[in-house]
Amino acid sequence: MTAGGGSGVGPTAAVDRMSAQPATSRMRRATAEDAAEIARLTGELGYAASAEEILHRLRTLTPDASQLVLVMELAPGKLGAWMHAGERLTLESGLRTEIIGLVVDAACRRRKLGATLVAEAERWARQRGAPALAVRSNATRIESHEFYPALGFARSKTQHLYWKVLA
User: Fold this and answer.
1) In sequence order, what DSSP letters do the residues of 47-103 get, joined into one string?
2) Which CATH architecture has domain 13-150?
3) What is the domain partition of the chain in residue ranges?
4) What are phi and psi of 54, to 5 degrees?
5) CB-based burial label for 121 (10 Å; 0-12, 13-18, 19+)
6) How far apart are the first and last CA of the chain?
7) In angstroms, rounded to a whole number, what is the distance separating the alpha carbons of residues 167 and 159?
8) Rounded to whole angstroms, how far apart are CA atoms 97 and 89?
9) Any residues with CB less than 8 A from the CB of 119 and at least 6 apart, and which?
C-alpha cells in the first residue's frame, strides 16, 4: 500500500466504515512488521515463505499504488488474516482488478475477517475505476467455493494452471 495510493484505509477509517467487522480485530495496511505473521498465515495454505521473503515482497508491493495489501490485526503482533489485491492492464481484457491472495487463520474463520477484507477490496477497486473484481480459487479449497458466491461473486470459468520451474 502506498501513502497517497488513494485507498482511504487508515488505522480507524476502515474500521468505522465496516460494520460487519468483529470488534476484536482492526483492518489496516500491511507493514514490514507484519512479515512474520503473514508468512505464518501463508504457510497455513501450504505456501511456504520465510519472513524475510515476505518482507522483501511487502517492500516491493506496498509502495505501488496499484497494489492493496491489508491485514486484520487481532492484537499487536498477531494477525487473523491478510489480503493482497492488485490491478493490471492486459491486452485481451483491459484493466483487471483481482484479489490475488486472501488467507484467514483457521482459528478465525467464520468471524467475517475475510468478508471485511473483500469488501474493502471492492471499495478500493471501485474508487480506482475498475469495472469488476476477480478472484481465483484453487479447486481444492472447497470452503472458498461457498464463501465467494455468498459475497456476490459468480463463477466465470474453470481453468488449468501450468507451471514450469525455471531455476
Assistant:
1) ----HHHHHHHHHHHTT-TTEEEEEEEEETTEEEEEEEEEEEEETTTEEEEEEEEEE
2) 3-Layer(aba) Sandwich (3.40)
3) 13-150
4) -65, -40
5) buried
6) 30
7) 25
8) 9
9) 18, 20, 151
Distance CA 136, CA 159 (A): 10
Q: Report the pLDDT averaged over residues 123-138.
A: 92
Beta bridge partners of 96: 88
Q: Using a cut of 0.85, tell me whether the model's pTM lies above it.
A: no
d(CA 82, CA 26): 11
| Strand (E) or helix (H) holding 111 | none
Cα angle vertex 51, ends 31, 65, to 5°?
35
Q: Is the pLDDT of residue 22 over 50?
A: no
Mean pLDDT calculated for residue range 47-75:
96
Rounded to whole angstroms, the Cα distance separating 78 from 98 reads 26
Task: Decide: residue 65, CB within 10 A, 0-12 exposed, 13-18 middle, 19+ buried.
Answer: middle
Report CA dihedral (16, 143, 68, 61) to the nearest 10 degrees: 140
